[in-house]
Amino acid sequence: MPDAQDLQVTRDDMSHRYEVSVDGETAGFIDYIEGDGTLAMTHTEVFEAFRGTAAARTLAGEALADVADRGLAVIPLCPYIARYLTRNEVAGLEVLWPERS
Fold this sequence. Notes:
By secondary structure, this protein is of the alpha/beta class.
């Protein structure tokens, strides 16, 4: 299992995603759609070789912290991100919960 220092999260604005890498190898990503003052997180995926590690949790935590630092509100459309937010508080983050039908 990788240590926290082995994980790196980056934001790729051209691809509209946050990526997590382990020792330089892409381990997963979060896709997003940025709007006027909001960022909707639509899909999270961690590749099979990295499941069961801290990759998904680190990716979600650091991506959400970045959203808060940028002064944007997050819309958690992705089930993993929604579950993360129900279990973890992210300082300064405004969450706009989507309406459920």
